[in-house]
Design goal:
Oligomer: single chain
Order of helices and strands: HHEEEEHEHHHEEHHH
Shape: globular
Number of domains: 2
Helix content: 40-55%
């Protein structure tokens, strides 16, 4: 594809959507300021990723609400620049690309630096999920924390993908933040809010003496679970695999 063809495939509406997501990101307090965290969107038709930029000496970022359409960077699925307007993509580009490559169901990512989830991130602990809305976004389990990886490294990209697994829409990056995924920004931001909710609930529940991690038996009767388990096993699957397709 020629440079002209590549540019003609860039969608202004997706550029605008990513720019708006930066303001939403700031207003929801999922970023502490400057360029902490980032967001991106994947166009399923071209595979292009529309992503927030890193600061530039001539374009400092006080917080993400400063972002305008012309600041957004577009790359192909391998990270090659398609359109940049003299900006470079966020340093966490590799993590976004790794998740998109591993999870075809994901088309939007919010890499948050939310205060409550960062507590568990700093502790390098999974976030238990005690309620249905948090249990479901975690892929029917706790929100996993990657064991290692650093910041903006190939290792953190691999670890993020592993912590997400095939079902979860959220994972923690140690002493860093969280990756929250969805088929759209609407879903990815909902997931980010639920991650903060899960972390806040877990903190208070532990202070009050603790509670067991939610399981499928909290959502259905033992009899129904046994029937679903028999049907799933006959198909070579687990109940979690079957239910995850409907999430």
């Amino acid at each position: 594809m020629s440079d002209t063809e590549e540019h003609s495939a860039v969608r202004p509406d997706l550029i605008a959507e990513v720019a708006r997501s930066a303001t939403t990101f700031w207003k929801l307090e999922l970023t502490s300021g400057l360029d902490a965290g980032d967001t991106s969107l994947r166009d399923p038709d071209t595979g292009y990723v529309y992503i927030l930029p890193r600061p530039h000496p001539e374009r400092p970022i006080a917080n993400w609400s400063d972002i305008e359409d012309h600041d957004i960077v577009v790359v192909d699925r391998h990270g090659a620049i398609v359109m940049a307007n003299d900006m470079e993509p966020t340093v966490e580009l590799e993590t976004h690309l790794g998740i998109y490559d591993a999870r075809p169901d994901v088309h939007a990512i919010v890499h948050s630096h939310g205060e409550w989830s960062q507590i568990f991130s700093a502790l390098r602990c999974d976030i238990p999920t005690y309620t249905s809305e948090t249990y479901l976004i975690a892929g029917l389990g706790p929100i996993r924390c990657a064991p290692s990886g650093g910041v903006a490294t190939p290792e953190v990209a691999r670890q993020a993908v592993e912590a997400l697994g095939p079902r979860s829409k959220a994972a923690l990056l140690p002493s860093h933040g969280a990756v929250c995924c969805g088929c759209s920004f609407e879903e990815a931001f909902h997931v980010a809010r639920m991650v903060e909710r899960a972390a806040r609930q877990a903190t208070f529940i532990r202070l009050l003496g603790g509670a067991p991690q939610m399981t499928l038996l909290d959502l259905m009767s033992p009899e129904r679970y046994e029937k679903m388990q028999a049907a799933a096993q006959a198909a070579g699957e687990t109940v979690e695999d079957v239910l995850a397709r409907s999430l």
